[in-house]
Amino acid sequence: MDTLKQSSKIWVSEVLTNLDTMWDGIESTITKSGSASYLVPLQQFIFKFLVKCLVGADPSSSQEIAESGYAMLDRWLALQLLPTIYIGALQPLVEIFLHSWAYPFFLVSGDYKKIYEFVEKEGKEVLQRGETEFGLTRKESIHNLLFVLGFNAFGGFSVFLPSLVSTIASDTTGLQAKLRKEAREKGGSTLSFDSIKEMPLIQSVVYETLRLNPPVPIQYGRARKDFQLSSHDSVFDIKKGELLCGYQKLVMKDPKIFNEPESFKPDRFMNEKGLELLNYLYWSNGPQTGSPTVSNKQCAAKDYVVLTAALFVAYVFRRYDSITGDSSSITAVEKAK
């Protein structure tokens, strides 16, 4: 939380600056090739602004980190997540060969070491706070910061933002026109977290994307005490120490809460009735209306995620009249007139 608070001064400016770079590159590629994959440019954007905000360092101070830092984190993340990821292949081969053991760290130790050394050299201010204000050793500070940067922040945005781009770029219902109108007519001349709060449709689109495609669909926890867990029509006795699993995609498609739960409804979370549904939006390991604490383990940056994604959408429709694409590529952009 402390690192997020410290980064708040530059978060929006870094997002906007790096979005300029990302979309300049996509436009150039479309001009040359007719289409542009946005997955790598999107990850580069995510990596660069997060390093500036969370580490307080400029990736360009190291050519290797600037060019390949995002890929290093990808490989590190893949090794941790592979044992849990569904792969549509013949069973039980997947379980036997991919899901039955932890993978050895040495496979990505070289990448991790390079990022570790970069943070140690360039992130002196945030590491100093870890030592003086929280009693961590230098090594503990670096490892904790790398987990927040790589797993929580970079990993989460890398899963979520592509689904948001795909949803918008493949729209055929007229949603883009509505988003364009709101992005340009509301929030004043300068984008900020405050101006985003004046754009209810854009926020609703972000919430609806999180509902259908939560970045972390499965979460686990052990009961700290005996208690009863209630559903709409049942009560379950939970004993202290029992392992619980929450499958968010199932929870957030509850037909007793969400009308037409399988459908993408961009305005679902608008107006008073829609805002009440935020009590049941659990993408962040807790309700969207909740507040993260050290005891509830709700995503510390849940509000940053929503506002950053909304900022992303508002930026796109202040820059473009429309974008066209699919789950991996942008095929056309029409610049704002």
List keywords for this structure.
mainly alpha, 7 strands, globular, 337 residues, 14 helices, 10% strand, two-stranded antiparallel sheet, Cytochrome p450, 54% helix
Q: Compute the separation of the termini in Å.
A: 41 Å
Strand pairing plus helix content: what structural class? mainly alpha
Helix content: 40-55%
Strand order of the largest sheet: 1-7-6
* SSE ordering: HHEHHHHHHHHHEEEEHHHEE
Could you tell me the number of beta strands?
Answer: 7
Transmembrane segments: 145-165
GO molecular function: heme binding; iron ion binding; monooxygenase activity; oxidoreductase activity, acting on paired donors, with incorporation or reduction of molecular oxygen
Cofactor: heme
Pfam family, one: p450
Question: What's the arrangement of secondary structure elements?
Answer:
Blueprint: H1 2-7, H2 11-33, E1 36-37, H3 39-55, H4 63-81, H5 93-97, H6 109-122, H7 124-134, H8 138-169, H9 175-185, H10 193-196, H11 200-212, E2 218-222, E3 227-230, E4 235-238, E5 243-247, H12 248-251, H13 271-276, H14 302-319, E6 320-325, E7 329-335
Antiparallel strand pairs: 1-7, 2-5, 3-4, 6-7
Helix pairs in contact: 2-3, 2-14, 3-4, 3-8, 4-6, 4-8, 6-8, 7-8, 8-11, 9-14, 11-14
Could you explain the architecture of this structure?
With about 325 residues, the chain is mostly helical. The protein has a single domain (about 1-55, about 125-335), classed as Cytochrome p450 (Orthogonal Bundle), CATH 1.10.630. It has helices spanning about 1-5, 10-35, 40-55, 65-80, 95, 110-120, 125-135, 140-170, 175-185, 195, 200-210, 250, 270-275, 300-320, and strands at about 35, 220, 225-230, 235-240, 245, 320-325, 330-335. The strands form 3 sheets. Strands 1-7-6 form a 3-stranded antiparallel β-sheet. A two-stranded antiparallel sheet has the order 2-5. Strands 3-4 form a two-stranded antiparallel ribbon. α3 (about 40-55) runs antiparallel to α8, α6 (about 110-120) crosses α8 and α7 (about 125-135) packs across α8. One of its GO terms (molecular function) is monooxygenase activity. Belongs to the cytochrome P450 family. It holds the Pfam family p450. One of its GO terms (biological process) is sterol metabolic process.
